[in-house]
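Please decode residue identities from the backbone states below.
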């Protein structure tokens, strides 16, 4: 677990403790939820774009491999 994860967990534990005693304003919690959901959506879009790019590269490599395989097989038969 990284330092950032440890700090985040510690902060969330403190907020949870504060929420148990009604010390955290609902607006603050809703703001934090919205912020995390927006970040999650942004990361999902980056992930989807990266996967699309990698899949495209993989398809091209498979095509190159198939062409090379056919070419080599043709040369071997001659």
């Amino acid at each position: 677990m990284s330092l950032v994860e440890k700090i985040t967990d510690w902060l969330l534990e403190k907020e949870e403790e504060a929420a148990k005693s009604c010390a955290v304003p609902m607006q603050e919690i809703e703001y934090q939820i919205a912020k995390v959901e927006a970040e999650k959506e942004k990361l999902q879009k980056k992930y989807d774009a990266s996967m699309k790019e990698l899949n495209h590269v993989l398809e091209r490599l498979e095509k190159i491999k198939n062409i090379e395989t056919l070419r080599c097989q043709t040369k071997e038969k001659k």
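Observation: The radius of gyration is 25 Å.
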